[in-house]
Amino acid sequence: MEDGLEIKVRAAYVDTDQMGFVHHSNYVKYLEYARWEWFRFMGLPYKTIEENGILMPVVDMQLHFVKPIYYDDLISIDLEVKLVGAARLKFDYGLYNEHGQLLHSAQTILAFVKKSTKRPCRVPDAISSLLSQFDLKISAFSITV
Amino acid sequence: MEDGLEIKVRAAYVDTDQMGFVHHSNYVKYLEYARWEWFRFMGLPYKTIEENGILMPVVDMQLHFVKPIYYDDLISIDLEVKLVGAARLKFDYGLYNEHGQLLHSAQTILAFVKKSTKRPCRVPDAISSLLSQFDLKISAFSITV
Amino acid sequence: MEDGLEIKVRAAYVDTDQMGFVHHSNYVKYLEYARWEWFRFMGLPYKTIEENGILMPVVDMQLHFVKPIYYDDLISIDLEVKLVGAARLKFDYGLYNEHGQLLHSAQTILAFVKKSTKRPCRVPDAISSLLSQFDLKISAFSITV
Amino acid sequence: MEDGLEIKVRAAYVDTDQMGFVHHSNYVKYLEYARWEWFRFMGLPYKTIEENGILMPVVDMQLHFVKPIYYDDLISIDLEVKLVGAARLKFDYGLYNEHGQLLHSAQTILAFVKKSTKRPCRVPDAISSLLSQFDLKISAFSITV
């Protein structure tokens, strides 16, 4: 986990279903929450990205459910971010309980789209420089975000 | 119920919570579904209203939970629509199970907002004429929608 | 706000709709979050209540939408809790933006139901004593939670 | 599509986000809807399965977003069902607009879990016989569900 960034989410009551644990669709919200908190931590809130005319829709996602998440569980989310080609961003996620057990792993791929034209575009400079700065950090500290 | 309009919604699995019935927040979605189906039936889909530059946000809602709704229940929704002043639309809803028992009653008040300015505006002509035509129908047939 | 309890919620991207602000159904989740955080703060997490065989379904709610909540807004939620008769709990909520402007006010009434029988029951002792202890606190400090 | 089964879902307003189309998490609900409608059509509603003591949690899902789904779009969902080993059920989905264009493809894998013990179990006889009967149908009619 990147210097001091700890992404935690608490499973809400509304997130459960009658099986007695969190419904699989709600994990998707936890992943979204995690990646925008990561962007915020890196100094580039997703809100700012949209205000600069770029949307980042999810184009692909894979979710693997290992153990259930129960109401009120406090979940830690690890994530790893990578540029894929010139126009895609890949996030890998691990969700852990308070005992460090892996509950869930996932991957999402996001595209970049111009808000004005709704057409795909290349990764904005602000994001690629954030990622390169971030790679430096990683190599310097030998850690995985 | 207006000549031939029957609004039915089936409670989805994702709508339940660990109490074993539909979570109270999901009723709000059923009400939204019901009012847009009513507009569609009246020949003025909400999509068309938005395409004509008008948004209709909810400004007030009251929900009364009488009996639980369970997964897979098929619910009938009755609604009554009234103009309130020059700029608000009031919907009253009744949700019934297949035995005709009242499960839920609700009221929502919607405003009219110009999409371009995000400022409140008066009821659009298309909607007020739809409602007056609809009042005629009601008086002619002596029915409550 | 009760000594040190600050309930804050950040509007998630998934909570918005195509009007460009938070969909009215999602406020219901913010209210739920606020009341369970209040119970946690008071030393009686809702999870514990359920583990002791009591469910607390919402039986009535009223929501008044004053100003929109936008994506990524950080919202402060004030709440006031009162016992209503012997079997209902009433919560009044105020949602404020970072400038202290009221965005939303709401009221929810919750019943107590035995998990085993799904029948209504009186307020559990743990909750009434929590509330009476809490009233003492209020009178002592002359504050509104 | 199996003799007469047409699974259609209409994109709800609440399903959209501020990008102006359906949020990626809501596709997960459409898939759930489709598979339970398929079970209902085959004479074995998922509700009945749960009433017989079996839960079917999703253990893996993959979603590929091809084109956006907009508010009020009427989507057709095709699905293909296969038993995987003795204890998993795989669904492949295709979501199409009214012009027959593929908007989305997905795959979900479901396990079987005993409600009483919350432990995994083999595919229940009722489901395997439904699937074998269904394979006969397929070979007889040479169609893909």
Tell me what the structure shows.
The structure is a homotetramer of 145-residue chains. With 145 residues, chain A is α+β, with helices and mostly antiparallel strands. Chain A has one domain (7-141): Roll (Thiol Ester Dehydrase, Chain A). The first copy, chain A, is built from three helices and seven strands; from the N terminus they run βααββββββα. Chain A has helices spanning 24-41, 46-51, 125-141, and strands at 7-10, 54-55, 58-65, 74-84, 88-96, 102-111, 113-114. In chain A, the strands form two sheets. Chain A has a five-stranded antiparallel beta sheet with strand order 1-4-5-6-3, with helices on one face. In chain A, strands 2-7 form a two-stranded antiparallel sheet. The relative contact order of chain A is 0.21. Mean pLDDT of chain A is 89; it is low at 138-145. The interface between A and B is small, with 11 and 11 residues.
